Amino acid sequence: MVVRNLVRNLDALEGSEPFDVCIIGSGPAGTTLGTLLAEHGIRTVILESGNSLLNWLADPRLKKLAEYEYTGDTNYPLTRTTGRLVGGNSNFWTGRCERFQPSDFETNPYTPKGNPWPIKYKDLDSYYLQAEKMLRVRGGKLSKYMPPRSEELPLPPSPNITALKKLMIKAGVVVDDSPTATPARGIRFFRFNKEILPRFLGSRCGILVSGVTVTRLIHDNESRIMGAEAKTLDGITKMIRAHTYVVACGGIQTPRLLLLSRSERFPKGIGNQYDRVGRGFNEHAAPNIYGKIRHNRNTLDLRHKVGRTHQFYEKFWVDGLGGVFPVFIQSWVFPHHLLRYRLQDIPRHAVKIMKRAMQPTLYMGATIEMQPVDENRVSLSNTREDIFGNPLPHLIFNYTDKDLHLLERTRQLLYSLFEKMNATDLEEIEVTWSRHHIGTCRMGDNPKTSVVDRNLKVHDCPNLYLCGSETFVTGSPAPPVLTITALAHRLGDHLISSSLQKI
């Protein structure tokens, strides 16, 4: 990694301003966008609250900055849902790169009233291709159930899941490779800070400032953002100035920053004239079931084999419910990561592992699309503050009746597939969460029902943009990172074009 453009001291920025673009957040959205801009000669600074993974694990002050309040019946986990470190939550990403379906962008059962997607699948198609090439996405020939595409995935599949595909045909399921980002450096998982950020740091126009937290945005009399107030953990404050600002902090911290940036002109927070900031939080809940099957020539493999299917994506739309996205994992020797073992359980589970010589484990789970409703939202705490004296985010997150109905219908679907497989010893564990924070600053053409427009510009501010899954109108049941990256490419084109027009 080229380190000459990695800054850990705000004083080092003296004489470097104003930048063309200031990006707040170094996760997938911020790193992708910053790299595209810097490589096109646009002077770009990325501000990141955290530093390294070691700092994140060892510094309790960073942990406190990531805290938030929670109210609701979803039993949503407060730990391991946000990270303050360079690369953001992509440090914990498994690399899954699924496209949304074209139907996600059309009017469907979960489209919010008065707030349809302002873009269509065709508007993202070319950017999906660019994102897949940037992320070196691998996967085999895809079935008719997968989203349409004009080119094959950039890299061939690995590992080969032909045996798993044959196994699941027995249940009438067409399994596809799960398109996955592939690191170029031989490590197991793709990390934006390892694979993409070096390009940004190696350019002459990109600077990363780590260890600083943006606490509010400052605007002028024309509602243009004129500064980002940034603080170090030691309390040093500096105003970062740029011509254009992009907030890419995720579905909890992005709305929080807008709400913290209250002023006489924006008494409810920037972008919040119609009380839309923070509304419509949704996630990906998943039921998880394990079963035993008999060995055949398609199960005798020591490696985990993972496949997914879009076959049931819209199965429950006819009932007014959201999308469903099943995943299948064949495990012969090693247990699935969701099965948590205590030390005293090791002897018992060692026996289970030996029994897999006769009966391997098959895992089936499915992420569901949750209903985006205004009542599920991010606001500011009335009782708790961070280390800078600012209110923590307060997440209100409850299941809707449709969420509960869809979870039950999805369980029934998975059990029916196990029945077709003649599986035994079925075991269901608790609902799990994907840690995908979606939809709190939705895009749209109508400022009364959305926060940003189709180009991701905040309606109220001529030079402020948002980028990430917080701008999604609906969540889809598919993982969000590829769509986040595609939107970052699209925003990059818009900002590069705007910059060229000013020359």
Automatic annotation (TrEMBL):
<dbReference type="InterPro" id="IPR002938">
    <property type="entry name" value="FAD-bd"/>
</dbReference>
<keyword id="KW-0560">Oxidoreductase</keyword>
<dbReference type="InterPro" id="IPR007867">
    <property type="entry name" value="GMC_OxRtase_C"/>
</dbReference>
<dbReference type="InterPro" id="IPR000172">
    <property type="entry name" value="GMC_OxRdtase_N"/>
</dbReference>
<dbReference type="InterPro" id="IPR051473">
    <property type="entry name" value="P2Ox-like"/>
</dbReference>
<protein>
    <submittedName>
        <fullName>Glucose-methanol-choline oxidoreductase</fullName>
    </submittedName>
</protein>
<dbReference type="GO" id="GO:0071949">
    <property type="term" value="F:FAD binding"/>
</dbReference>
<dbReference type="Pfam" id="PF00732">
    <property type="entry name" value="GMC_oxred_N"/>
</dbReference>
<dbReference type="GO" id="GO:0016614">
    <property type="term" value="F:oxidoreductase activity, acting on CH-OH group of donors"/>
</dbReference>
<dbReference type="Pfam" id="PF05199">
    <property type="entry name" value="GMC_oxred_C"/>
</dbReference>
<feature type="domain" description="Glucose-methanol-choline oxidoreductase N-terminal">
    <location>
        <begin position="205"/>
        <end position="285"/>
    </location>
</feature>
<dbReference type="Pfam" id="PF01494">
    <property type="entry name" value="FAD_binding_3"/>
</dbReference>
<keyword id="KW-0285">Flavoprotein</keyword>
<dbReference type="InterPro" id="IPR036188">
    <property type="entry name" value="FAD/NAD-bd_sf"/>
</dbReference>
<keyword id="KW-0274">FAD</keyword>
<feature type="domain" description="FAD-binding">
    <location>
        <begin position="20"/>
        <end position="50"/>
    </location>
</feature>
<comment type="similarity">
    <text>Belongs to the GMC oxidoreductase family.</text>
</comment>
<feature type="domain" description="Glucose-methanol-choline oxidoreductase C-terminal">
    <location>
        <begin position="372"/>
        <end position="488"/>
    </location>
</feature>
